[in-house]
Write a structure and sequence with these properties.
heterotrimer; A alpha/beta; B alpha/beta; C mainly alpha; B: 4-stranded antiparallel sheet; 11 helices; C: mainly alpha; 8 helices; 88% helix; elongated
Amino acid sequence: MQHSNTQDTLVGLFVAAGIAGLFFLALQVSNLSSFTEQEGYTITARFENSGGLKVKSPVSAAGVKIGQVSNISFDPKTFESIVKMRINAEYKTIPEDTTASIFTAGLLGEQYVSLEPGGADEYLKDNGNIEITQSAIILEKAIGQFLFKSAEEKK
Amino acid sequence: MSDNARSQNSLVAVRNLSFSRGSNKIFKDVSMDFERGKITAIMGPSGTGKTTLLKLIGGQLQPAQGTVMVDGKNVHRLRRGDLFELRKRIGMLFQSGALLTDMNVYDNVAFPLREHTHLPESMIRSLVLMKLQAVGLRGARDLMPNELSGGMARRVALARAIALDPMMIMYDEPFTGQDPISKGVLVHLIKSLNTFLGLTSIIVSHDVQETSAIADYIYVISDGKIIGEGSPADIQNSSSDWVQQFMVGSADGPVHFHYPAKDLQDDLMSAGKRY
Amino acid sequence: MLAFIQTLGKNTRASFTKLGRATFFLLHTITGIIDIMPRPRLLLNQLYSVGVLSFLIISISGLFVGMVLGLQGYYILSDFGAEETLGVMVAASLVRELGPVVSALLFAGRAGSALTAEIGLMKATEQLSGMEMMAVDPIKRIISPRFLAGFISMPLLAALFSAIGIIGGQIVGTGLLGVDDGAYWSQMQAKIDFQDDIINGVIKSLVFGFVSSWIALFEGYDAVPTSEGVSRATTRTVVNSAFSILGLDFVLTALMFGDD
């Protein structure tokens, strides 16, 4: 125990390095810095079919991520899928007549919501609704239709 | 001195003690008295459970039967806290010294003081140096346990054992494996500590000469029983063959030289049979 | 046949009594932590021997594991034209699995075996017994600080392992193989979730730290006090820790990442 000063320093360095590692993981590696608990507002869109969309799927406009899906539920009356999206506060100027579509990133990639702004002067507010939606393209359906059509043409 | 007087003045009283380890009976109905201010020795061959007896007195082991009273308290009936209080007043010197290997000599002796008292460091320093002075190792305070000889380690352990000024000290084989000078030093130390600090000492040993030189009373145990007791002189003149063999150290006697085996002649003639 | 059944019964009984002893030991150790709280020096010394001394092996192993992941991941992902997701692959494997598990295995080999040997030798040289006779509870004085130090060190070591590994993957992926640096980090940040991945990884390493410290200290404390007994106990520590870590990892993974 004669070297307790050096020992203390090393223990201090070790603990500091460990905590720095944790911070690095939290801030640099994970999505903690970009989304959780950030200021924002929620908008809702109804889709005929939301396909493979999941909570935390990205919401983007013109290819830039501006928010994420916060909730997906099923409406038992209209048989539609209700998708709630949390949009970052800095993007306040999304027109009311914006179209929401569900696309797939690449052939096998994950699904995301793409917003295509319209031309209205009014902007979407918290708890606002997007009226115009386009459902997810279900690959099996699309292939089925394609095969059906080409069979018809051959006749 | 009559037996009655001894038992009245005893600090430690062992009554009808039985203890077994597995199916091996180590003590069978043993009773002993350890007088206040005296040095009492327990002697016997290796493996007769002498160390076990010390652990029973210290409350580290539970007896199958019988009681051990230390200073009027039944050791095995005490609650944990009370047992620890009692142990603060008992010093024990282990065979190996049992020094804490990650601390130097000074910190080892200071260990019980730091654990049990809230004395300022300056006072602990004075106490530690006094205890080390008593065992003649004040100059060795900065050495680590692995730098000490066996005899020095035991002396440091002795300094540690008297750090809290106990009422009694138990010595587990203090002379084993020591050169004649170390033995002489330890004999001298045990005797003088006992006299000057008014301690009660219990020595467990099989070193006949050293123990007889300082003990006031000796118990000889073998096979879980007391086979002889009395002052060193009584024991030297004991009529028991067994005690005589032990004290003199003869190769053959009641304890046979040969481990039990069948007749040598038969064994040699049965060549070719490999059990 | 009868002999076999007898041995089986005997072994079962032995392992149950050992488990019982281990549980009492653990409870005693945990209650002891309260008593050592006012003496941070005891904990600090153990953080040094448990944490600081494992630091080097953990950092170097983390770097190499990350570099290997970068290399292997690149070869596989480039077949699908998905090199940009290298960061996700490296980070997810490290944060979820390799970080907690490999650092726990290294910890068991480096610090765990050292703890067992230390405690076992203290027992063999009667130091524990001597403490008891000095009215000092050896579990509180010796075991509890070491246990706490192991429990604290493990998540820190695992975080270091993952962080250094991710940097190692970046060195290989973007430095040597030409993956875009921006894509490496941004894909990672988009996919690695703080709650699901980082926190769950930390929980794993806390569990592993708890279990491997417990095993190491108990094996030392329960060792037969001879040199042979201590060496056997050290072996048992490494083997049992590895089994427990890998088994628990499966259970924890199933619980944490089961539904998604």
